[in-house]
Amino acid sequence: MPFELSSDVVACMLAEAQRAHPLECCGVLLGSADGVTGSLPARNVHPDPARHFEIDPQVLIDAHRAARSGGPRVVGYYHSHPNGLARPSATDNALAANDGAIWAIIAVGRITLWRSGDAGFEALPYEVTPR
User: Fold this and answer.
1) pTM of the full structure
2) Does the annotation count 16 as an active-site position?
3) pLDDT in tens, 84-114
4) Distance of alpha carbon 130 from alpha carbon 85, whole angstroms
5) Which is nearest to 52 in space by CA: 24, 31, 71, 77?
6) Residue 127, Cβ neighbours under 10 Å: how many?
7) To bridge 86 with a disulfide, which of 16, 23, 32, 112 should be the other Cys (CB 3.0-4.6 Å)?
């Protein structure tokens, strides 16, 4: 069964990337082991947001608290690459926790998904589902 990505999440991430350009946008992905059903846009608090991202820690805290209270699970993160490369950068590779989290990277109007694991990032094929 292919990994699923909600069409609402796709629309949100593409809009966030376009709005933030030429800076990197970022946020949290919500869902299950089978797919992403929601996203939480976050402020990029990195001192150099044109080249790096750092999700506002309060958004992460709130998302994990909501999950513990029965809300959707945090399954990963997203950010944009204004340089147009829709693949993990050397910085992404260095900062990834290798914990199985999903990373969505938005560049030039497209989204690629990656799973962070012991061997680094692995491309994650997906299908867009309604809502």
Assistant:
1) 0.95
2) no
3) 899 999 999 999 999 999 999 999 999 999 9
4) 26
5) 24
6) 10
7) 112
